[in-house]
Amino acid sequence: MIFDHISNKEKYRGLPWLYGALEAMAPVTSETFEPGQIVIDEKTLFLNCNAYNSKLESDCFFESHKEYIDVHLMISGEEVIGHNEESLLEVTKAYDAEGDAILYQGNIQTQFVLKAGWFAVFLPGEPHLVGLQCGDDSVPVKKIVAKVAGRLASL
């Protein structure tokens, strides 16, 4: 897992797969954000632009992937992201190749707040729980999740 601010993207030039994802997402602002999918390269990189309200923990779930790396960039709003080791979670939905996801339930081991301008990277096999509201109030969220082909990380 990586957690950093988009203003530090130059530090990741040595990781072309990550730098490319950050470059593709960097121009998007709250004003230019539009929900939907942007295909940069249909086999290696696409951006899911998501707009939703943050939720209670009971409405969230852990997920991990096998084929794609997730790069979450918050455009506006904020949410808590939880993390735990795969071995400490219970699988609730076996791997779905079409959606590239395994779903889990369990406790949050570590967590952090993702605010506007910050990004988090989850490699294949790193369970993460997203969309969790900070405190008592739900807030509108605009977030991009870049999906990067996991095989690129080994290049």
Main beta-sheet strand count, sense and barrel state: 6 strands, antiparallel
Specify the number of helices: 1
Task: Calculate Rg over CA atoms.
Answer: 15 Å
Q: What is the topology, as strand order, of the major beta sheet?
A: 1-10-5-12-3-2
Derived structural class: mainly beta
Overall 3D geometry?
Answer: globular
Strand-and-helix sequence, N→C?
EHEEEEEEEEEEE
In percent, how much strand structure appears in the residues?
over 45%
Query: CATH first level: which class?
Result: Mainly Beta
* Estimated helix fraction: under 10%
Mean pLDDT: 95
CATH-defined superfamily: YhcH/YjgK/YiaL
Q: What number of domains?
A: 1
Oligomer: single chain
CATH topology name: Jelly Rolls
What does this structure look like?
The chain starts with a strand and ends in a 6-residue tail after the last strand. The chain is 6% helix and 48% strand. The mean pLDDT is 95. It contains 1 helix and 12 strands, in the order βαβββββββββββ. It has a 6-stranded antiparallel sheet, covered by helices on one side. A 6-stranded antiparallel sheet has the order 7-8-4-11-6-9, with no helix packed on it. By secondary structure, it is mainly β. Strand 2 and strand 3 form a beta hairpin. The protein is globular, with a radius of gyration of 15 Å. The longest helix has 10 residues, at 16-25. The protein has a single domain (2-154), classed as Sandwich (Jelly Rolls), CATH 2.60.120.370. It comes from Endozoicomonas elysicola. It holds the Pfam family DUF386. This is YhcH/YjgK/YiaL family protein.
